[in-house]
Description:
The protein is 76% helix and 0% strand. The relative contact order is 0.13. It is built from 14 helices and no strands. The protein has helices at 5-9, 12-43, 49-53, 67-98, 103-116, 120-134, 141-165, 169-177, 182-193, 195-211, 214-219, 230-233, 241-250, 255-290. It comes from [Clostridium] leptum DSM 753.
Amino acid sequence: MTKSLYQKKRRPSDLLLKIAINGAALLTVIVLAGIILYILINGLPYISWEFLSTSYSESPSGAKGILPMIINTLYIVAITLLIATPIGISSAIYLTQYAKQGRLVRAIRFTTEILSGIPSILFGLFGYTVFCVMFRMGTSILAGCLTMTLCILPTIVRTTEESLLAVPGSYKEGAMALGAGKLRVILGIVLPCAVPGILTAVILAMGRIVGESAALLYTSGMSYNMPKDFFGQIMNSGRTLTLHLYQTAMQATSDDAFHIAFATAAVLLVIVFLLNLLAGLVSKTLKKGEQ
Length: 291
């Protein structure tokens, strides 16, 4: 029986490399699963309806609910995405479809990549100086949303840009040959083909918003009061779940405080999972609509 060319050239080093790659992947999955299980095991037993539906009090005998923090987190996620997503997608469309490819575009892309690697605490200091002090917004949810917009814009722009560039040029050429205008080609062909990549950018941005603490510590504040109305709350201070987790863990002087921190972390994991699941369902729905 003759051996294939691949079998003839296979060396012991190839087997070692394959074992190393599989081992690294398995180790990554084990570590991730261990972290998630550790948080859920320590947090889920202390989650109750009262914990999810009541306000928070720092007094020892007061309520320890996290409803205000859940609402504030959803506020910041929704408002930030509503501001950043149209700007990011529009910027990516301009850079890939309209702008003349030259030094300016390369400089913009290089700057965007640098911004995506800047520590979030620097965005927090900038947001505090500009939005909280210069624009006199104070520590508010709106100031936190504008600061988080600056944090996630590089991710949305670069990921969307790569998705648009991955669309085959023959699609655009064929549509234009049939007489379609450039804007119609972009909106009707290029963007629908790039939807999976755009949703990936939104999911990555969403994960950063939910998990952010340093930038929001300076801008959104640490208030744990229950929101009274929709529009009035965005101009008030409000801590998110990550800030509440940080605050309770740092001030923990008893086992109950640590239980609250783990329970908050478990709720945070569940919210991230549900948001990603929702984004996945939207992606599948859009793909079915295209078919």
